[in-house]
Amino acid sequence: MNIAIVGTGYVGLVSGACFAEMGADVVCVDIDKNKIEALRQGKVPIYEPGLDDLVRRNVSAGRLHFEISLDNVIDDVEAVFCAVGTPPDEDGSADLSYVLSVARTFGRLINKYSLFVTKSTVPVGTAELVKAAIADELEKRGVDIPFEVASNPEFLKEGAAIKDFMSPDRVVIGIESERARRVMERLYRPFLLNNFRVLFMDIPSAEMTKYAANSMLATRISFMNEIANLCELTGADVNMVRKGIGSDVRIGGKFLYPGCGYGGSCFPKDVKAIIKAGEDRGYDMRIIRAVEEVNERQKSIVFDKLADALGNLKGRRVAVWGLAFKPETDDMRCAPSLVVIDKLIDAGATVVVYDPIAMDECRRRIGDKVIYAADMYEALVDADAMALLTEWKQFRLPSWKLVRRAMKGNVIVDGRNIYDPSELAEEKFTYCCIGRKRQV
Protein backbone atom coordinates (compact mmCIF):
# COMPACT_ATOMS: atom_id res chain seq x y z
CA MET A 1 0.00 0.00 0.00
CA ASN A 2 1.31 3.46 -0.88
CA ILE A 3 0.84 6.40 1.46
CA ALA A 4 2.27 9.89 1.93
CA ILE A 5 2.90 11.58 5.26
CA VAL A 6 3.19 15.36 5.29
CA GLY A 7 5.43 16.62 8.08
CA THR A 8 8.69 15.00 9.19
CA GLY A 9 8.60 16.11 12.80
CA TYR A 10 8.34 13.70 15.67
CA VAL A 11 4.96 12.17 14.78
CA GLY A 12 5.41 12.15 11.02
CA LEU A 13 8.87 10.64 10.94
CA VAL A 14 8.17 7.95 13.54
CA SER A 15 4.87 7.05 11.84
CA GLY A 16 6.45 6.97 8.39
CA ALA A 17 9.35 4.77 9.46
CA CYS A 18 7.06 2.38 11.36
CA PHE A 19 4.52 2.08 8.54
CA ALA A 20 7.43 1.31 6.21
CA GLU A 21 8.70 -1.29 8.64
CA MET A 22 5.27 -2.97 8.47
CA GLY A 23 5.55 -3.20 4.68
CA ALA A 24 3.88 -0.04 3.37
CA ASP A 25 5.55 2.13 0.75
CA VAL A 26 5.84 5.53 2.43
CA VAL A 27 6.79 8.97 1.15
CA CYS A 28 7.48 11.53 3.87
CA VAL A 29 7.01 15.09 2.65
CA ASP A 30 8.42 18.27 4.15
CA ILE A 31 9.03 21.74 2.70
CA ASP A 32 12.36 21.97 4.55
CA LYS A 33 14.83 21.05 1.78
CA ASN A 34 17.79 20.71 4.15
CA LYS A 35 15.89 18.34 6.40
CA ILE A 36 14.76 16.20 3.47
CA GLU A 37 18.27 16.00 2.05
CA ALA A 38 19.63 14.99 5.45
CA LEU A 39 16.96 12.31 5.83
CA ARG A 40 17.80 10.92 2.40
CA GLN A 41 21.34 10.49 3.71
CA GLY A 42 20.07 8.72 6.81
CA LYS A 43 20.55 11.66 9.18
CA VAL A 44 17.64 11.86 11.63
CA PRO A 45 17.01 15.37 13.02
CA ILE A 46 15.37 14.26 16.27
CA TYR A 47 16.51 12.02 19.10
CA GLU A 48 14.38 8.93 19.60
CA PRO A 49 15.92 5.56 20.58
CA GLY A 50 16.04 3.20 17.60
CA LEU A 51 14.72 5.69 15.05
CA ASP A 52 18.03 6.17 13.20
CA ASP A 53 18.33 2.44 12.47
CA LEU A 54 14.67 2.16 11.50
CA VAL A 55 14.91 5.02 9.01
CA ARG A 56 18.16 3.81 7.45
CA ARG A 57 16.89 0.23 7.16
CA ASN A 58 13.68 1.18 5.37
CA VAL A 59 15.38 3.73 3.11
CA SER A 60 17.81 0.98 2.06
CA ALA A 61 14.91 -1.41 1.52
CA GLY A 62 13.22 1.10 -0.79
CA ARG A 63 10.07 1.42 1.34
CA LEU A 64 10.76 4.87 2.83
CA HIS A 65 11.27 7.94 0.66
CA PHE A 66 11.55 11.68 1.25
CA GLU A 67 10.22 14.50 -0.93
CA ILE A 68 9.76 18.26 -0.63
CA SER A 69 6.37 18.33 -2.32
CA LEU A 70 3.22 16.24 -2.72
CA ASP A 71 3.08 17.11 -6.43
CA ASN A 72 5.21 14.22 -7.62
CA VAL A 73 3.62 11.54 -5.42
CA ILE A 74 -0.06 12.39 -5.04
CA ASP A 75 -1.20 10.18 -7.96
CA ASP A 76 0.63 7.15 -6.57
CA VAL A 77 -0.76 7.14 -3.03
CA GLU A 78 -4.10 6.03 -1.59
CA ALA A 79 -3.96 8.14 1.53
CA VAL A 80 -2.25 11.31 2.65
CA PHE A 81 -1.52 11.60 6.36
CA CYS A 82 -1.23 15.09 7.80
CA ALA A 83 1.32 15.13 10.64
CA VAL A 84 2.24 18.80 10.79
CA GLY A 85 2.37 20.78 14.02
CA THR A 86 -0.59 22.34 15.80
CA PRO A 87 1.17 24.73 18.22
CA PRO A 88 -0.90 26.71 20.72
CA ASP A 89 -2.11 30.15 19.74
CA GLU A 90 -1.89 32.99 22.25
CA ASP A 91 -5.37 32.11 23.53
CA GLY A 92 -4.43 28.44 24.05
CA SER A 93 -6.33 27.10 21.05
CA ALA A 94 -4.60 24.81 18.57
CA ASP A 95 -3.18 26.64 15.56
CA LEU A 96 -4.66 24.78 12.59
CA SER A 97 -3.02 26.89 9.89
CA TYR A 98 -0.50 24.19 8.95
CA VAL A 99 -3.15 21.47 8.85
CA LEU A 100 -5.44 23.57 6.66
CA SER A 101 -2.53 24.46 4.39
CA VAL A 102 -1.89 20.75 3.80
CA ALA A 103 -5.62 20.24 3.18
CA ARG A 104 -5.65 22.99 0.57
CA THR A 105 -2.60 21.50 -1.15
CA PHE A 106 -4.34 18.11 -1.14
CA GLY A 107 -7.40 19.71 -2.78
CA ARG A 108 -5.27 21.38 -5.44
CA LEU A 109 -3.49 18.16 -6.40
CA ILE A 110 -5.76 15.12 -6.18
CA ASN A 111 -6.94 13.58 -9.46
CA LYS A 112 -8.67 10.46 -8.13
CA TYR A 113 -10.40 9.25 -4.97
CA SER A 114 -8.06 9.91 -2.06
CA LEU A 115 -8.27 9.76 1.72
CA PHE A 116 -6.97 12.64 3.85
CA VAL A 117 -6.01 11.35 7.31
CA THR A 118 -5.36 13.74 10.18
CA LYS A 119 -2.55 12.39 12.36
CA SER A 120 -1.86 15.77 13.99
CA THR A 121 -3.52 16.45 17.32
CA VAL A 122 -6.52 18.60 16.43
CA PRO A 123 -9.63 19.77 18.30
CA VAL A 124 -13.08 18.38 17.67
CA GLY A 125 -14.54 19.87 14.52
CA THR A 126 -11.28 20.06 12.59
CA ALA A 127 -12.41 17.42 10.09
CA GLU A 128 -15.21 19.71 8.96
CA LEU A 129 -12.75 22.57 8.43
CA VAL A 130 -10.45 20.26 6.49
CA LYS A 131 -13.28 19.03 4.27
CA ALA A 132 -14.35 22.60 3.57
CA ALA A 133 -10.78 23.61 2.64
CA ILE A 134 -10.40 20.66 0.25
CA ALA A 135 -13.83 21.21 -1.29
CA ASP A 136 -13.04 24.88 -1.82
CA GLU A 137 -9.89 24.03 -3.76
CA LEU A 138 -11.75 21.49 -5.89
CA GLU A 139 -14.41 24.08 -6.64
CA LYS A 140 -11.73 26.56 -7.72
CA ARG A 141 -10.44 23.91 -10.13
CA GLY A 142 -13.95 23.24 -11.42
CA VAL A 143 -13.64 19.50 -10.79
CA ASP A 144 -15.68 16.98 -8.83
CA ILE A 145 -13.19 14.46 -7.47
CA PRO A 146 -14.31 12.19 -4.62
CA PHE A 147 -12.36 12.39 -1.38
CA GLU A 148 -12.86 11.58 2.28
CA VAL A 149 -11.40 12.63 5.58
CA ALA A 150 -10.40 10.38 8.49
CA SER A 151 -8.87 10.90 11.92
CA ASN A 152 -6.05 8.72 13.26
CA PRO A 153 -4.60 10.39 16.37
CA GLU A 154 -1.23 9.25 17.67
CA PHE A 155 -0.53 8.05 21.21
CA LEU A 156 3.26 7.93 21.17
CA LYS A 157 5.43 8.50 24.24
CA GLU A 158 8.72 10.24 23.51
CA GLY A 159 11.51 7.84 24.36
CA ALA A 160 9.33 4.79 23.61
CA ALA A 161 7.64 5.89 20.40
CA ILE A 162 8.67 2.98 18.19
CA LYS A 163 7.48 0.38 20.69
CA ASP A 164 4.25 2.33 21.18
CA PHE A 165 3.63 2.41 17.42
CA MET A 166 4.55 -1.21 16.71
CA SER A 167 2.82 -2.66 19.79
CA PRO A 168 0.05 -0.18 20.56
CA ASP A 169 -2.40 -0.25 23.45
CA ARG A 170 -4.94 0.75 20.82
CA VAL A 171 -5.24 2.33 17.41
CA VAL A 172 -8.03 4.90 17.15
CA ILE A 173 -9.51 5.59 13.72
CA GLY A 174 -12.34 7.97 12.98
CA ILE A 175 -14.11 7.39 9.65
CA GLU A 176 -17.34 8.32 7.90
CA SER A 177 -17.81 5.52 5.37
CA GLU A 178 -17.10 1.88 4.66
CA ARG A 179 -14.80 2.90 1.83
CA ALA A 180 -12.58 4.90 4.19
CA ARG A 181 -12.72 2.04 6.68
CA ARG A 182 -11.48 -0.42 4.06
CA VAL A 183 -8.51 1.82 3.21
CA MET A 184 -7.51 2.11 6.87
CA GLU A 185 -8.08 -1.62 7.51
CA ARG A 186 -5.68 -2.45 4.69
CA LEU A 187 -3.02 -0.16 6.13
CA TYR A 188 -3.47 -1.48 9.66
CA ARG A 189 -3.88 -5.12 8.63
CA PRO A 190 -0.58 -6.16 10.33
CA PHE A 191 -1.93 -4.78 13.62
CA LEU A 192 -5.26 -6.57 13.16
CA LEU A 193 -3.41 -9.83 12.46
CA ASN A 194 -1.51 -9.40 15.72
CA ASN A 195 -4.80 -8.81 17.58
CA PHE A 196 -3.97 -5.26 18.64
CA ARG A 197 -7.05 -3.21 19.37
CA VAL A 198 -8.02 -1.14 16.36
CA LEU A 199 -11.00 0.98 17.37
CA PHE A 200 -13.15 2.44 14.60
CA MET A 201 -15.45 5.30 15.57
CA ASP A 202 -16.91 8.53 14.26
CA ILE A 203 -14.46 11.36 13.56
CA PRO A 204 -15.47 13.76 16.39
CA SER A 205 -15.04 10.94 18.91
CA ALA A 206 -11.60 10.10 17.52
CA GLU A 207 -10.56 13.76 17.70
CA MET A 208 -11.81 14.03 21.29
CA THR A 209 -10.17 10.76 22.37
CA LYS A 210 -6.68 12.17 21.92
CA TYR A 211 -7.37 15.25 24.03
CA ALA A 212 -9.26 13.28 26.65
CA ALA A 213 -6.44 10.74 27.02
CA ASN A 214 -3.72 13.35 27.49
CA SER A 215 -5.90 15.40 29.82
CA MET A 216 -6.58 12.35 32.00
CA LEU A 217 -2.86 11.53 32.25
CA ALA A 218 -2.04 15.15 33.06
CA THR A 219 -4.78 15.09 35.69
CA ARG A 220 -3.25 12.08 37.42
CA ILE A 221 0.13 13.82 37.54
CA SER A 222 -1.24 17.07 38.96
CA PHE A 223 -3.45 15.17 41.40
CA MET A 224 -0.47 13.28 42.75
CA ASN A 225 1.57 16.47 43.03
CA GLU A 226 -1.23 18.05 45.07
CA ILE A 227 -1.27 15.02 47.36
CA ALA A 228 2.54 15.13 47.65
CA ASN A 229 2.51 18.78 48.67
CA LEU A 230 -0.11 18.05 51.33
CA CYS A 231 1.92 15.05 52.53
CA GLU A 232 4.83 17.36 53.31
CA LEU A 233 2.59 19.55 55.43
CA THR A 234 1.01 16.66 57.33
CA GLY A 235 4.03 14.42 57.83
CA ALA A 236 2.76 11.66 55.52
CA ASP A 237 5.07 9.90 53.03
CA VAL A 238 3.80 10.29 49.48
CA ASN A 239 5.57 7.12 48.34
CA MET A 240 3.54 5.11 50.84
CA VAL A 241 0.37 6.92 49.82
CA ARG A 242 1.08 6.28 46.14
CA LYS A 243 1.50 2.57 46.77
CA GLY A 244 -1.62 2.50 48.90
CA ILE A 245 -3.91 4.06 46.33
CA GLY A 246 -2.17 2.47 43.34
CA SER A 247 -2.96 -0.97 44.76
CA ASP A 248 -6.63 -0.29 44.13
CA VAL A 249 -7.33 -1.94 40.75
CA ARG A 250 -9.77 0.87 39.94
CA ILE A 251 -6.90 3.37 40.18
CA GLY A 252 -3.66 1.55 39.32
CA GLY A 253 -0.14 2.88 39.77
CA LYS A 254 0.67 4.49 36.41
CA PHE A 255 1.19 8.26 36.24
CA LEU A 256 0.93 8.55 40.02
CA TYR A 257 4.54 9.62 40.52
CA PRO A 258 4.95 13.04 42.15
CA GLY A 259 7.59 15.39 40.83
CA CYS A 260 8.31 18.86 39.54
CA GLY A 261 5.58 18.95 36.91
CA TYR A 262 4.95 17.66 33.42
CA GLY A 263 6.29 19.24 30.24
CA GLY A 264 6.91 18.26 26.64
CA SER A 265 5.10 18.90 23.40
CA CYS A 266 1.81 17.16 24.17
CA PHE A 267 0.36 17.55 27.67
CA PRO A 268 0.77 21.34 28.05
CA LYS A 269 -0.49 22.06 24.54
CA ASP A 270 -3.39 19.62 24.64
CA VAL A 271 -4.56 20.69 28.09
CA LYS A 272 -4.67 24.31 26.92
CA ALA A 273 -6.48 23.31 23.74
CA ILE A 274 -9.23 21.33 25.48
CA ILE A 275 -9.79 24.20 27.93
CA LYS A 276 -10.14 26.57 24.97
CA ALA A 277 -12.45 24.15 23.17
CA GLY A 278 -14.74 24.26 26.20
CA GLU A 279 -14.58 28.06 26.36
CA ASP A 280 -15.54 28.34 22.69
CA ARG A 281 -18.67 26.36 23.43
CA GLY A 282 -19.55 28.17 26.63
CA TYR A 283 -18.33 25.41 28.95
CA ASP A 284 -15.73 25.86 31.71
CA MET A 285 -13.42 22.82 31.97
CA ARG A 286 -12.86 23.44 35.67
CA ILE A 287 -11.01 20.22 36.54
CA ILE A 288 -8.63 20.48 33.59
CA ARG A 289 -8.07 24.18 34.22
CA ALA A 290 -7.02 23.28 37.78
CA VAL A 291 -4.72 20.58 36.38
CA GLU A 292 -2.89 23.22 34.36
CA GLU A 293 -2.69 25.67 37.29
CA VAL A 294 -1.29 23.01 39.62
CA ASN A 295 1.31 22.00 37.05
CA GLU A 296 2.51 25.53 36.44
CA ARG A 297 2.90 26.03 40.18
CA GLN A 298 4.66 22.67 40.55
CA LYS A 299 7.39 23.66 38.10
CA SER A 300 8.66 26.14 40.70
CA ILE A 301 8.80 23.68 43.58
CA VAL A 302 12.47 22.74 43.06
CA PHE A 303 13.45 26.40 43.07
CA ASP A 304 11.38 26.97 46.22
CA LYS A 305 13.13 24.09 47.97
CA LEU A 306 16.55 25.39 46.93
CA ALA A 307 15.69 28.85 48.24
CA ASP A 308 14.40 27.37 51.48
CA ALA A 309 17.52 25.26 52.01
CA LEU A 310 20.12 27.84 50.96
CA GLY A 311 18.48 31.11 51.95
CA ASN A 312 19.79 33.95 49.83
CA LEU A 313 20.63 32.49 46.40
CA LYS A 314 22.70 35.45 45.22
CA GLY A 315 26.23 34.27 44.46
CA ARG A 316 25.33 30.62 45.06
CA ARG A 317 26.38 27.92 42.59
CA VAL A 318 23.70 25.37 41.72
CA ALA A 319 24.21 22.24 39.62
CA VAL A 320 21.28 20.96 37.56
CA TRP A 321 21.11 17.31 36.52
CA GLY A 322 18.67 16.86 33.65
CA LEU A 323 17.25 19.37 31.17
CA ALA A 324 14.86 17.39 28.97
CA PHE A 325 11.27 17.17 30.15
CA LYS A 326 11.67 13.38 30.50
CA PRO A 327 14.38 10.74 29.93
CA GLU A 328 15.21 9.33 26.49
CA THR A 329 14.51 12.56 24.62
CA ASP A 330 16.19 15.89 23.96
CA ASP A 331 12.84 17.70 24.05
CA MET A 332 12.82 20.74 26.35
CA ARG A 333 9.47 22.17 25.32
CA CYS A 334 7.69 23.38 28.49
CA ALA A 335 10.31 21.55 30.57
CA PRO A 336 10.45 22.32 34.32
CA SER A 337 14.20 22.90 33.89
CA LEU A 338 13.52 26.11 31.97
CA VAL A 339 11.45 27.51 34.84
CA VAL A 340 13.99 26.49 37.50
CA ILE A 341 16.95 27.88 35.55
CA ASP A 342 15.22 31.22 34.92
CA LYS A 343 14.28 31.61 38.57
CA LEU A 344 17.78 30.73 39.77
CA ILE A 345 19.39 33.22 37.41
CA ASP A 346 16.89 35.92 38.38
CA ALA A 347 17.81 35.25 42.02
CA GLY A 348 21.50 35.82 41.26
CA ALA A 349 22.69 32.21 41.29
CA THR A 350 25.25 30.66 38.94
CA VAL A 351 23.78 27.60 37.21
CA VAL A 352 25.83 24.69 35.88
CA VAL A 353 23.91 22.11 33.84
CA TYR A 354 24.34 18.60 32.51
CA ASP A 355 22.05 16.36 30.48
CA PRO A 356 23.11 13.25 28.52
CA ILE A 357 21.23 14.30 25.37
CA ALA A 358 19.67 17.76 25.66
CA MET A 359 22.76 19.98 25.97
CA ASP A 360 22.63 21.20 22.37
CA GLU A 361 18.92 21.86 22.68
CA CYS A 362 19.56 23.86 25.83
CA ARG A 363 22.23 25.93 24.06
CA ARG A 364 19.78 26.58 21.24
CA ARG A 365 17.11 27.73 23.68
CA ILE A 366 18.96 29.76 26.28
CA GLY A 367 22.49 30.21 24.97
CA ASP A 368 25.18 31.12 27.50
CA LYS A 369 22.88 31.94 30.43
CA VAL A 370 24.25 28.79 32.12
CA ILE A 371 27.54 26.93 32.31
CA TYR A 372 27.61 23.61 30.41
CA ALA A 373 29.47 20.76 32.12
CA ALA A 374 31.16 17.89 30.31
CA ASP A 375 29.70 15.26 32.62
CA MET A 376 27.46 14.88 35.65
CA TYR A 377 30.27 15.09 38.20
CA GLU A 378 31.95 18.09 36.61
CA ALA A 379 28.67 19.96 37.03
CA LEU A 380 28.96 19.49 40.80
CA VAL A 381 32.38 21.04 41.30
CA ASP A 382 32.13 23.74 44.02
CA ALA A 383 28.31 23.61 43.88
CA ASP A 384 26.35 24.72 46.93
CA ALA A 385 23.46 22.52 45.84
CA MET A 386 22.39 20.02 43.20
CA ALA A 387 18.90 19.82 41.70
CA LEU A 388 17.80 16.70 39.84
CA LEU A 389 15.11 17.52 37.27
CA THR A 390 15.15 14.57 34.83
CA GLU A 391 15.44 10.95 35.97
CA TRP A 392 17.95 9.68 33.41
CA LYS A 393 19.21 6.19 34.27
CA GLN A 394 22.79 7.37 34.73
CA PHE A 395 21.65 9.71 37.50
CA ARG A 396 19.96 6.94 39.49
CA LEU A 397 23.01 5.39 41.16
CA PRO A 398 25.64 8.11 41.51
CA SER A 399 28.71 7.71 43.67
CA TRP A 400 27.67 9.82 46.64
CA LYS A 401 31.24 9.93 47.85
CA LEU A 402 32.31 11.54 44.57
CA VAL A 403 29.34 13.89 44.79
CA ARG A 404 30.29 14.90 48.33
CA ARG A 405 33.91 15.53 47.38
CA ALA A 406 32.99 17.60 44.34
CA MET A 407 30.41 19.81 46.01
CA LYS A 408 31.13 22.73 48.30
CA GLY A 409 27.70 22.47 49.93
CA ASN A 410 25.54 19.51 50.83
CA VAL A 411 22.02 20.29 49.56
CA ILE A 412 20.37 17.81 47.18
CA VAL A 413 16.92 18.64 45.80
CA ASP A 414 15.39 15.63 44.09
CA GLY A 415 12.63 16.75 41.74
CA ARG A 416 11.76 13.18 40.75
CA ASN A 417 11.98 11.27 44.05
CA ILE A 418 14.51 8.73 42.81
CA TYR A 419 16.92 8.71 45.76
CA ASP A 420 16.88 6.94 49.12
CA PRO A 421 16.69 9.50 51.96
CA SER A 422 18.45 7.22 54.44
CA GLU A 423 21.39 6.71 52.07
CA LEU A 424 21.83 10.44 51.62
CA ALA A 425 21.49 11.03 55.35
CA GLU A 426 24.39 8.64 55.91
CA GLU A 427 26.50 10.73 53.53
CA LYS A 428 25.55 13.91 55.49
CA PHE A 429 23.50 15.51 52.73
CA THR A 430 20.53 17.76 53.30
CA TYR A 431 18.01 15.96 51.12
CA CYS A 432 14.78 17.50 49.82
CA CYS A 433 12.31 15.62 47.64
CA ILE A 434 8.62 15.87 46.78
CA GLY A 435 6.06 14.73 49.33
CA ARG A 436 8.36 14.01 52.26
CA LYS A 437 9.82 16.12 55.01
CA ARG A 438 13.35 17.35 54.42
CA GLN A 439 16.00 14.83 55.52
CA VAL A 440 18.96 16.41 57.32
Structure description:
The protein is an alpha/beta fold and 440 residues long. It has three domains: 202 residues, NAD(P)-binding Rossmann-like Domain (Rossmann fold), CATH 3.40.50.720; 87 residues, N-(1-d-carboxylethyl)-l-norvaline Dehydrogenase, domain 2 (Orthogonal Bundle), CATH 1.10.1040; 134 residues, Rossmann fold (3-Layer(aba) Sandwich). The protein is built from 17 helices and 14 strands. The strands form three sheets. A six-stranded parallel β-sheet has the order 3-2-1-4-5-6, sandwiched between helices.
What is the beta-strand fraction?
A: 5-15%
Question: What would you call the structural class?
Answer: alpha/beta
| Percent of residues in helices | 40-55%
Count of the separate structural domains: 3
- Count of DSSP H/I helices: 17
Radius of gyration based on Cα positions: 24 Å
Could you say what the CATH topology of the largest domain is called?
Answer: Rossmann fold
Spatial order of strands in the largest sheet: 3-2-1-4-5-6
First-last Cα distance: 63 Å
Average pLDDT, all residues:
95
Write down how many β-strands occur, each being a DSSP E stretch of 2 or more residues: 14
The CATH architecture of the largest domain would be 3-Layer(aba) Sandwich
Corresponding CATH superfamily of the largest domain? NAD(P)-binding Rossmann-like Domain
Cα shape:
elongated
Largest sheet: 6 strands, parallel
Unreliable spans: none
CATH class of the largest domain: Alpha Beta
